[in-house]
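Entry 14. Two folds queued back to back today. First construct below, sequence then structure tokens.
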Amino acid sequence: MACIVQKYGGSSVADVGRLQKIAKGIAELKRSNVDIAVVVSAMGKTTDGLVAMSRQICPIPPRREMDMLLSTGERITMAMLCMALHEQGIDAVSLTGSQAGIITNDRHNDAQVIEVRPFRVQDEMAKGKVVIIGGFQGVSYRRDITTLGRGGSDTTAVALAAALNAERCEIYSDVDGVYSADPSFVADARHLPEVSFPVMQEMSKAGAKVLHASAVQFAKEKNIAIYARATFAPGRETIIRQLSPGEVAGVQAVVSEKQVERVRLQANDIHACFKNTVDFLEKAQVPIKEVNVNEVPADGERSCASFVISTKDIYGWERIKSALQNNLNGKIYFDTDLSALSLIGEGLNRHNLTLLATLELLADNRIAVLGIATTAFRISLLVPADQIEESVALCHTRWVANAGE
């Protein structure tokens, strides 16, 4: 029997009425004789409300207790959807992330899935039941409840689809797929019918909110196509799948990340300084990216290193910065009020023409470029935060809207 994994998030599960509509669709699919596992997010603004409530008690809540608190949001949704399915005459059972076998590492708030043991899910499916799973959550090897960070329900769904050898994974939200830019920034952003796994991963890492990068990684490893759809507006969709090299070339999307900071280090022993800094950040569960270590002294006295941090979802970032400044045996500087602009697509760095033209475009519009990083599928530029929307609009017009002109 074919197996399909679905995920519902965003406004799809905002209230009881929408859960009932979702239940009708799941019931119709189940009657077509397929096995179904459904991953759900918290209803509406439940997670935001829990975060706000926690900070009334503690400005910087302990990460473990935040995971225990936030995991309750998805449990409400899964139980309610299960009840709605029973009203449709469909046998269903709800499972938490731990009951579904989502095993993670021992990080809190941004845990990584290290293994999926879907035995309970398979047992319930064998009994003919639809299985409803709370997304965004798992259990560590120490048996602590963990949450998977931004987009965690997507990761739950795709990891589960991989473990179940599902035919496909359908991601339902309030948007009908992936766009060439954030439509709230760019009115003429283009809908993308198909996106390759590497391009989607780079988009996610660069700030796109449609799918989480770790979810795409699971799909790529198991070659499971992801269908990104709007829950209540059937028709268009984006399929994220393996594409042949060169099938789609050039800039496909312009993505932005608003809240980033660059950390710069200077020290006589830059390797020791960098290692101590990264060790400290790892213990504080703060990920870094765009690392650059220069062993040749830039000022004739000290070597330097730098990296970028996405600060939006880091609890107690200002406290962490103060601790770094107090404990570091060297100089540390924080470049704030920055945003990251990224051009995403295949073959962008086979030559330097795209980068050079982008730098010229921004310079002509008096937008300073404060940092550059590239991969095979991405060109990222640090720009002033108050100019990020203008930067996205300019680059989208140049590389997407006017492509080929």
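Second construct, same run, same settings:
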Amino acid sequence: MKMPSASATDLNKPELKHFLKTQDYTRQQLADILELMGMLKEARKANAVPQLFKGKSVGMIFEQPSTRTRISFETAATILGGHGLFLSPKDIHLGAKESLADTGRVISRMCDVIMARVDDHKTVAGLAEHSTVPVINGLCDWLHPTQIMADLFTMMEHLPEGKKLEDLTVAFVGDATNVCSSLMFACTKFGMHFKHIGPEKYQAPQMWQDIALENIETSGGKLTVTDNVDEVEGCDILIADSFYWFGQEAEKEERLTTFMPKYVVTEEMMAKAGENSVFMHCLPANDQRECTREVMDGPRSVIFDEAENRLTAQMALLVYLTHKHIQKPSEETVAFHKDRIEGLLSRI
């Protein structure tokens, strides 16, 4: 007996969308996701989150370890009535015994969303090319878009009085990380003034700046790339990140020598930014390196609000990317299959 795929998701979705980078979305689409985040966060506070991912699964591929990404996606799926499945390199044959294309095809037949936290952007892009369910970039060497949705929402929660999102001046102090690139793209898309402050050798490459400048033509934002830490003056948001990451261990000493102490976010730097400035960090943080413990634990730090909003972002992304494809059976269809299956079970 030959049967078509029994996947709960339509394998030929005309409106299939992936979330690989914020540049794939309009400003309005990103604003819609942020609005959805707000509603879901309020619903969670009231313990009244609608089961919008009920009976569905997100397959979570991890080439890199994570605290916030795994916990937030797995918890988001559960709160919404679904399930998160952790897949480490030891659990699957990604790009080894099994091609990237086949991995995407297989997981698409069993899960409703794929989230991939990978070493190379080509991996998550390849999964998206061959998957028939939404693919979410949980981090790659170039971008960290899910983190940035949490960051944008955190900025909205802590807006200075009288300011809108587009009025903000955001300073990223340190290395040109995947968080830096994603923030640069998202902030300029929303019309903010984005500053990357770091030593010349580790500043945002021209390709990133070109993308930001293209955003600015439409949004009216601004971009500053400089090694001058005095540029933090008047900034609403100061953001730090690690000075070295996986694969950069051999550069550790050179990097620390280059960045420290000039680019360490201290209470003095926060004071220079202004009394209403806010500190953010995607975590994990190497306190006393890219920022001091006093700043992390200080009254203007919102890093743990930011961390919690990873959950807020993942809930919204799971719903946003799947809500158009949910197939809701009628009560008659449910009753038909229930009676049919129970009838068989009663005879065996």
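Quick look at the second one. The radius of gyration is 22 Å. Strands lie at 57-62, 83-87, 113-117, 135-139, 169-173, 193-197, 222-226, 237-240, 278-281.
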